[in-house]
Amino acid sequence: MCLRGSPVSVQRRHLLLPQLVIISICSSKKHQTRQVGQFYHSRWHGEITMSYGIEGYQVTWSDNPGRKPSRGPLMGGRCESFSPLNSLRRMAPVVILSSLLVCLVLYYTFPMGDAAVYAASETTGLDSVTTEAYRKRLRIRGTQRRLPQALIIGVRKCGTRALIEMLNLHPHVQKNGIEMHFFDDDERYANGLEWYRKRMPYSFDNQVTIEKTPSYFISREAPARIRAMNETIKLLLIVREPAMRVLSDYAQIMEAKMRKGKQVAPFHKKVLTPDGEINDGFKAIQISQYAVHVLRWLREFPREQIHIIDGDNLVSDPFTEIDKVQQFLRLPLHIKPDNFYFNETKGFYCMRNETFQKCLTDAKGRPHPYVDPAVMSRLLDYHALNYQLNKRGIKRLAIRGLWVNNSVGTIHK
Question: Please, what is the Cα angle at 217 between 212 and 222, to 5 degrees?
Answer without folding.
Answer: 85
